Structures
1.
Amino acid sequence: MLVYAAMIHRHDNATQTRWDRGDFKVQLILPGDTKPMGFCDGTDADRAELRSMAEAEGSSFEIEVKVLKTGREIWTLRGSG
C-alpha cells in the first residue's frame, strides 16, 4: 500500500502556473474569494491535512467537490466556527 504525504501548496504565481499546466489535480477555493487558496493532489492525506488546519483554527469544514471535464477537481472549502 502506498502512502502519500499531504502537500497543500499555497497559491502564488508559480503554483498557479503549475495548475495551468495540469501539475495539480485539485484547486482549493474558499466561498467568495476570487483567487484559489491553493492546490493539492486530492489524496486522503490532503483531506486530513485540511481537516487538521481547520481544527487548529477551532473550526470544522466540509468539502464541496466539482469535477471538471479534464478529470481535475475544484474543492470549495466551507467552514463553520
2.
Amino acid sequence: MVSSIRRMLCVVLLTGVLPVFAAGWDDNARYPAVQQFLKDLDLSVYRSPDFDSRPWWCDAPRAVEIPEDMIEEFFLAGAQDGITIIRLFSLMAITVRDQGIALCGSGDVLARVVRRNRINLGMSLPMENIAVYSWIPFDDPNDPYSIARSIIVYREPYTFIVPKDVMPADIKVGTWQKVPYTYGSETGTGALVTLGFHVSSNRVGFENIRGLGARLHGPLGYITSLLPFIPDDIHHLYLEQNTLFARALIAKEIPGFEDEERNRIRVDPMLPVSEPDQGTSD
C-alpha cells in the first residue's frame, strides 16, 4: 500500500509539478535580464497609488505604483533579452500573483519610457494611447494556470496596423465599451480592454480577452465589415513554444513567432525619440 502511494506521488510530481518548474528554468535561461529584474523586484516597498479612493480599474486589496525608473529598467531588460511583449507581460503577471500585490499606473509613463529609450516593442500594441492600466492577482481554484488579470483603458479606440505577412488582419482596440476613469487630475472616458494571464508549462499569454477585434485584410475583411452581426472579437493570444496562436473569427497560428527579431522587443537607435507608435484612430 505504501509503495503504491509512493509510486502515485512520483507520477504526480513527474507529470504535474516538474513541467511547471521546467518552464521556469527555461525562461531563466532564455531571459536572464528579465528574470533577474523580477527576482529583485519587491512590490511591497513601493507606495500605493495616490488616489482619493481606490478606482475600479485598480480594485485590489493591496496595490502599488512602481516608479518610472523601475518601469524603464523592466523594458530595457526585455530589450536586452529580446523577449516578446506577450511573454514579458506574462512573466510580470507571475510576480504580481506570487507577491499578491496589484500593479497599477499611468499609461503616459509607459509611453515616455518607450519613446525616451527608442524601444521597438516588436509585434505589440502601442503604449501611446493608454490612459491607465493594471495587473491584478487572480486566484481561481478551478484553474491554477489563470494567475492574473489586466485592465487597460485607452483614451480612444483605434486600429493597429499589422503587416500582411505577419497576420491576415489588423487589430481593433477598444471594441467593447466606453468607461470613465480617473488618474490624478486627469478624468475622462476611454475604451476598455480586459484580459487574463494564462501561464502553464507549455502555454503563456492572454486569455478571455474583451475589447480587441480583428479587421481582416482583403475582400473578406470588406465583406465582414458590411455584416456587423458577424463577431470579430479576439478571444485569446498565446504562445506555445515559439508559435503564436490567435483565436478569433478566423484562428491563426504563426510558427517561429518568437524566433523573428521583428516580433521581439529591442532598442532601435534609428527611432526618433518623438516618434509615435503605429496605429490609426477610429
3.
Amino acid sequence: MEAKSFQLILYVVFGVFILVGFGSLAAYGFLKKRAADDQSTRTQTVDILVWGTIDIREIAPIARRLSNFSDRLYGNVRYVEKNPDTIQDEYIGAIAVGRQPDLLLIDHHTIFALEDTLQTVPFSYFPLARYEQTFIQPANLFIRPNDGYVAIPFFSDAMVLYYNENMRLRNGIRALPTEWSQLSAGSFLKVNERYRDTSQALIPLGAYGNYRHAADLFAALILQVRESDIGLTERSARDILRFYASFAHPRSSVYTWSVAHADARDMFTGGNLFLYPGYISEFHELQRANPNIPVRVAPLPQFDRNGIAVTPSTLYAFAVPKRSRAPEAALAVLLDMLGVLYDKDNDISELFSLPPAVKWYYPDNESTATERVFIDSLFSSRSVYLTSEELETLLQTLQGVVVGTQTAETGAKTVLNLFR
C-alpha cells in the first residue's frame, strides 16, 4: 500500500442494526448495552483518533453508512491512514510524546509485534462462544484464554493466484493449476521451457529477494503439508524446500525464476509474468497498473487436491492501545464499526473490496467469478505469525537452499523450528 497521509472525519454513531447469522442480533445488542453502560458516567463526548494501514477508500463507506444516525456516545472519529512499513516506529514515537492514537486498525503481524502496548478486550465485551461463532478460524490467534482478545478482527486478506489472461490464451493453457505438482508437468512444463531463455517467467517460485510474498508463499506450502495426511516432518519440509528451490535452478526442467528478474509484481504488470500469487488487496492495484493486461483470479494451488484447502491470509483487526485517552469510547467505536458487518441491509461487496472476517459472508447468485474466488479463499484461510527475526531466518534459509550455500536437509530443521 502506498504511503499516504490522507485523513477522514468519520461521524461514527450508534444506531439500530438488523443483524444476521449465528444469533448476532442478541450479541450486538449486548455489546451496545455494555458500551453504553461504560459511557453513562461521561458528561461529554470524546473525539477518537484511529490510526490504520487500511486504504482510506475502504473506511470511507463506513462513514457514509453511519453518519446518518444520531445520539452518538462519543464525538468525531478521525481516521489517519499510515504507511505499513513505518507505522510501528511512528506509533512508538507517538507514545513517547503522548500523541498516540486511541484505536488501531492494523494487520495481525503488527498487532503481535506491538502486543505489549495494547490492552486486552475483555470477554465481557464479546463472549468467547459468540466470538468463535462469528469470526473465521484465523481469528483464534487473537484469543487470550485468561483475559480476552488482543484484537477484534475486521477484514481478511487472503492469498490468491493472479494470472495474465492474454498469456494463458497465447500458451494454450486450458485450466489453471489446482495442485503445485502440475507446474512441473504437461502444458506448464512447456511454458517453462519456452520462457527459460527469455525475459518472461511462469511463476516466482524459488524467489527470495525479488518477490515480496516469498516467505508467505513458502509458508502456504508448509501449512498445506502440515494439514495434509503427510504432515509436517523433517522429510516433508526438506522436500518442500527442494521443490521451491527447483524453480530457480538453471539446470532444472522447471527453471522459471532468477535473481536477475525484476520485482515479480512489476513483471506481472509489465506482461512478463504469467502467474502471480498475491493478496486480494492487490487486485485493483494490479488492474490500475496496466489496463491493457486482463488480470484474472484463481484459487491458490494446493499440495493435495483431496486434502484440506489452506490459503495464507493477513487479518486486519482493531486494537486498543493501553495509553488510549478514552479506552471505553474507543471500544464503542470498534463495536459500532463491526455493526456494519452485521447489518443485513448493507451490500458488503459494495462497501469493501476486502472480505470481512466473518463466517456468514457467502457468495450469492450475483457474485462474479472473482468474488467467488475471494470468498472461497476466505474460508480456507490460515494465518501465522513470525517475528521479524524469524522472518529473516526463513528468508535466509530460502536463499541458502536456492543458491546452494545450505542443504535442504539443514534448512528443513530450521523450517520445523519455525512452524511447529
